[in-house]
Structure formats: structure tokens, C-alpha cells
Amino acid sequence: MAERWDLVIIGGGPAGLTAAVYGARYRLSTLVIAQGGPGGQAATTEEIENYPGAGRTTGSKLMSEFRDHAESLGARLVCGEVCAVDLEGPIKTIRTKKGEVYEARAVILCPGAEPRRLGVKGEGRLHGRGVSYCATSDVDICTGRDAVVVGNSDTAVEEAIYLARFARKVTLICIHPEGIMDANKASQERLFATPNIEVVWQTVVEEIQGDGRVERVMLRHLGTGERSELPADGIFIFVGTTPRTDFLRGAGIDLDGRGYIIADPDTMETSLPGVFAAGDARRKWLRQIVTAAADGAIAASAAAKFLAEEEQVHREILSPEEPVLVVFWSPLNQLSLHVLQEAEKIVARLGGQVRLARIDCYKSSRTATRLGIFDVPAVQIFHRGIPLATLTEDFNHLEDWVTGHMPVKA
Ligand SMILES: Cc1cc2nc3c(=O)[nH]c(=O)nc-3n(C[C@H](O)[C@H](O)[C@H](O)COP(=O)(O)OP(=O)(O)OC[C@H]3O[C@@H](n4cnc5c(N)ncnc54)[C@H](O)[C@@H]3O)c2cc1C
């Protein structure tokens, strides 16, 4: 039998672990499924100096603090690779490669991203033999030797500075003309101040060569077309990322052309109700730890609100045996306050014949939209989960309208 959770979070990087902190604080039973254990990409870097309040720290330290925080609040973390999901119904099903099956009332997708390959000859053959996408794991490749770093983003520049502490020389290959880099200025200043780093401008890698191990990198200058050869013991590639969303293909989640999840920027909700997305796997502008954490916080609070609203709709509107008079009101709309007051009097006069349900559309516009209401005030009568009538204007004869639309007693 599948374990059922309020909230299942797929991915245990900064986005997933922050979502777990928030989910647990909302008192949702919260499970994080993380392939390879928690930490994500952030745990693979030695140098983090832009997470507010953490000063200069290492990725593994910061991520173990995220993990401890989530667990201390009651979230459960398990290792596993999610390979299949059924996210369309009210109860979502999540399956891992090892065969575990979990059910959830809400899901947050935080599978992050993985390094993009350069796509040049020799890269695949020499991966793990001097070709690397992670400086922390593979620093040994170039300790006391020569390394090439490809890329010019924050990550590329920070990792080049880290590698320069161990390598004899680091050559950074930048695709842009001299003086232009995508990395932030502070990181660029540190790069240029590091004596054993040289930048080769306006140049791309065409091929990685070596007999069983990386021995040299073939370069081409984009301005002159001139080709050259650079001896190297290791090549570290940081040319962006691709989202790890393959397991979502065909699951009804809208993805963009590059596979990033499209989610509402205000609530992180995806194209499927009750399914949210956070972090690097989401289509967004800035992919960093702080933005992944922010997404995770928003997604978990939106998931908690979604679940609370779903419960309210089922408990107060869809489940009761008696007819239900639903008033859609807002504290900002005077007429709706008047309609609500009238509805309360009518329900009191009708005794136990009808129940009253109040939907505050200022707080819960999603619930109203879900029930087909786009403006306040509005009034609906439901019976056994079915809407019998809707009133959106002329509330002067509300009592007559209510009694006129009550279900006929069998
Ligand atoms: C080398 C490097 C250095 C960086 N340096 C910095 C820095 O200094 N400052 C900064 O702010 N940012 C930095 N970043 C970026 C930062 O790490 C990311 O923006 C951040 O980790 C994104 O978090 P995330 O939770 O969205 O995804 P990720 O960190 O990618 O985590 C995703 C998690 O989901 C898991 N997962 C994926 N698919 C599945 C699946 N099918 N089933 C189960 N689990 C799955 C993964 O195993 C992983 O645990 C760096 C990145 C790299 C690679």
C-alpha cells in the first residue's frame, strides 16, 4: 500500500529543502524524495559567498544546515529517483526507480538542473578521464597541473578561482570579446587578481584530445578563425544547465521548449492544480541558491493554501447532505458585506433547511474561480456537490431567489 502524504517534494536541493521547512511549519506531513540524497548542485561547490547571512561558506556545509533545519521541523527525507508520476487527479502518485510508491495531496517539483554538455568531440569519451563538470569532486585532476575552465558565468568564474588554489595554471576560455563576461563584477575582480589564471577571449573549444586521459584542448578564435592547441590535464565545463524534467514528459505539466517547467511566478503553481514547481527546473531569470530557496518558500505556502481551500470546499460545500448557500464576498466590497449579512439572516430564518458557506474572495480567489465565480458579490446554491443556481446581480430579493432554487424534497 502506498504511503500517503499531504505534500511530496521531488528534489532535495535548496528549493526542495526550503519547501520542506515551510511545508513542515504549515503542519503538512511532508516528504522529500532526493536522488543521491539531499544537497543538490549547491552541495557540489566549495565556495559560496552570496547566500545572505552565511558569509563565505562551502556548499556542503550550507546544504547540511538546510537539511538539518527541514528534518528538525518534522519533514522526512528519503533517497530515491522519481521515474514516473501521475499528477492529474486530486491524489497524486509518485513512483521511484526502486519501486516505492507514494501518494500526495500536493506536489512540489524541485528536480533542479544538471550541467549542459559542450557537445564537442572527445567530451563524452574523456568524461571522468579529465573532463569534469564539478570542481569540488574532481579537483585532484589538476592539483599541481594545468586546468582549462570553459564558461564565463558566476559559476565558471568562481570555480576557476577555486581550482587556481590547487592547479599550477588555470586557463579560462571565454566566448565573448576581451573585457566582456556574464559573471558578476566582484567575481571578475577576484578572477583578474588571481595570478595563475589566464583568460583566453573570444574563443571556443572545438575538441578535447587525449589517449585515455585529457592531454590537450583544441581552440578556435571566433574573430580570426585561427586554431590553436592548449595542453591541459583537465577541462572543467560550466556552460549552463539543462533542467532534469524528463520524468515529467507526458505528465500534463507545461514545459517550455528547453524543458523548463512553466509556473505562475506569484504562486509557483504549474498547469496542474495542486502541483507546484520551484528552483532551477522552473523557467526563470536568475538560478541561484537564494532564488531556489525563495521559490521553495512560495511554493510550499501556496501548496498549504491550496490544501486548506480544497478541504474547505469539500467540507462546507461539496460534502453536506443539506443544500448549501455559498456567498462569495470580499472585505473590500461593501455590497458583498451586505449580501453576506442578508444571507446569514436568511439561513437563520430557514432553520436547518440550508447551510451557509462563506468564500472570502480576497484571500481565496482561486476557490471562487474554481467554482466559476469571477466577481463579488455572488451567491450559489449547491446540493450534494452539484451547483443548482448562481446569482451575480440584483440581490434585492435574495430570500425569494434562495427559496425558489431550493431542491425539491423527495
Ligand atoms: C558548481 C556550481 C557552483 C554554484 N555556485 C553557486 C553560488 O556560489 N551561489 C549560488 O547562489 N548558486 C550557486 N550555484 C547554483 C545553485 O547551486 C543552484 O541554483 C541551486 O542549487 C538550485 O537549487 P534547486 O533546488 O533548484 O536544484 P538542485 O540544486 O539542482 O537540486 C535538485 C535536486 O533534485 C534531485 N533530483 C533531480 N531529479 C530527480 C528525480 N527524478 N527524483 C528525485 N530527485 C531528483 C537532484 O538529485 C538534486 O538533489 C552553483 C551551481 C554549481 C553547479
Structure description:
The protein has about 400 residues and is an alpha/beta fold. The protein folds into three domains: about 5-115 and about 240-315, FAD/NAD(P)-binding domain (3-Layer(bba) Sandwich), CATH 3.50.50.60; about 130-235, FAD/NAD(P)-binding domain, CATH 3.50.50.60; about 320-405, 3-Layer(aba) Sandwich (Glutaredoxin). The chain has nine helices and 21 strands. It has helices at about 15-25, 60-70, 135-140, 155-165, 185-190, 290-320, 335-350, 365-370, 400-405; strands at about 5-10, 30-35, 75-80, 80-85, 90-95, 100-110, 115, 130, 145-150, 170-175, 195-200, 205-210, 215-220, 225-230, 235, 240-245, 275, 325-330, 355-360, 380-385, 385-390. The strands form five sheets. Strands 1, 2, 3, 4, 5, 6 and 17 form a seven-stranded mixed beta sheet that branches. Helix 1 packs parallel to helix 2, helix 1 (about 15-25) packs parallel to helix 6 and helix 4 packs parallel to helix 5 (about 185-190). The chain is elongated. The two termini are about 40 Å apart. The mean pLDDT is about 95. Bound molecules: flavin-adenine dinucleotide.
Please provide a brief summary of the model.
With 410 residues, the chain is of the alpha/beta class. The protein has helices at residues 14-25, 59-72, 135-138, 154-164, 185-192, 289-318, 334-349, 365-370, 398-404, and strands at 3-10, 30-34, 76-79, 82-86, 92-96, 101-109, 113-115, 131-132, 146-150, 169-173, 197-200, 203-209, 216-221, 227-231, 234-237, 241-243, 275-277, 324-329, 355-360, 378-383, 386-391. It starts with a strand and ends in a 6-residue tail after the last helix.
